[in-house]
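Help needed: design a sequence for this.
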């Protein structure tokens, strides 16, 4: 009986191994697995196709001045801080004026003294009837009045230079740190005052398109973040650059919040005409294969079919078509559709 035990163990082991192999499911053939690619679709409509003249330009302020003192001195008061909003007449920079006040008073006293001497000499000559010496200009020079008057005017002008006031409403743009009590030199660049509450933008337009524009036409302006602004053409250059074959168009945009920053690059477009057809679709839906244009339409929410189409008209965003098999409300592929084929099953994703 003990001799049969190894034989029974071997038999049981073989039986268990065979049963385990029978219970393991067979792996599917890799060629039989259906892979459905994700494809993005959009619904077409029958809206008209709008045509625009499009260009790109740089934002300019309506007004801009450099803040540069004409004399040197110690800062007594200032409003030169990045982004600070100031109103017309506000003090931008005030220098200590004690020295200049003294110079103005001294010059004024010299002027009064010279004027007294001039008046005395003039009365003396008049009383003697000396007509030959009645040349007033010469008398002003000989008595020193002309020079004293000029010195007084110069002193008053220098005193006025100690204060710089804002000539218009605007915001301060500066990279300098200005502190009360600090010394600033004559001619130092302390920053700029910018009035960009109304922004100006210069757009270059092709000479073949510029005749379609006129002053007063509405302009859509798009900032770098996609924010849309409404502007208007205020001027069209009378000249065309012979090298670039473009002319400049000047556009103004209300910019009370200063969202359009000076130097910012923006896109602009002007509506010039529209056209209608049976269907308007996104331009991304149009593909070209073997020299022919086609689209992929979604069927039964899982399968696509290709349809050869001929564009009626197109712009940078949309295409007009007139095809008997495509109607407003149909769903066409617009992305991730470059490698799909006719009657292929896909995972449809609707564009946001």
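Sure. Designed sequence:
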């Amino acid at each position: 009986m003990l001799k049969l035990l190894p034989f029974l163990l071997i038999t049981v082991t073989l039986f268990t191994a065979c049963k385990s192999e029978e219970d393991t499911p067979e792996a599917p053939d890799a060629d039989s697995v259906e892979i459905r690619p994700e494809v993005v679709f959009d619904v077409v409509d029958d809206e008209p196709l709008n045509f625009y003249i499009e260009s790109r330009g740089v934002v300019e302020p309506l007004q801009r001045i450099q803040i540069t003192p004409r004399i040197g001195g110690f800062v007594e008061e200032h409003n030169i801080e990045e982004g600070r909003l100031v109103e017309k007449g506000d003090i931008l920079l005030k220098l200590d004026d004690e020295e200049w006040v003294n110079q103005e008073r001294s010059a004024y006293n010299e002027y009064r003294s010279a004027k007294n001497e001039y008046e005395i000499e003039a009365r003396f000559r008049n009383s003697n009837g000396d007509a030959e010496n009645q040349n007033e200009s010469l008398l002003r020079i000989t008595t020193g009045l002309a020079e004293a008057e000029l010195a007084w005017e110069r002193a008053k002008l220098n005193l006025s230079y100690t204060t710089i006031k804002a000539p218009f409403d605007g915001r301060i743009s500066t990279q300098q740190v200005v502190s009360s009590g600090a010394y600033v030199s004559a001619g130092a660049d302390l920053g700029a005052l910018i009035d960009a509450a109304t922004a100006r933008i210069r757009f270059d337009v092709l000479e073949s398109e510029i005749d379609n524009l006129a002053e007063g036409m509405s302009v859509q302006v798009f900032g770098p973040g996609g924010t849309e602004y409404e502007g208007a053409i205020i001027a069209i250059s009378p000249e065309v650059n012979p090298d670039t074959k473009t002319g400049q168009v000047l556009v103004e945009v209300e910019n009370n919040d200063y969202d359009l920053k000076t130097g910012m690059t923006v896109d602009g477009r002007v509506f010039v005409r529209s056209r209608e057809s049976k269907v308007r679709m996104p331009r991304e839906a149009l593909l070209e294969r073997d020299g022919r244009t086609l689209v992929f339409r979604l069927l039964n929410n899982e399968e696509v079919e290709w349809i050869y189409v001929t564009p009626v008209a197109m712009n940078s965003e949309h295409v007009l078509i007139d095809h008997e098999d495509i109607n407003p409300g149909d769903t066409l592929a617009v992305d991730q559709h470059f490698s799909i084929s006719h009657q292929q099953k896909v995972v449809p994703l609707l564009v946001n």
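Helices lie at 5-23, 98-128, 136-142, 145-160.
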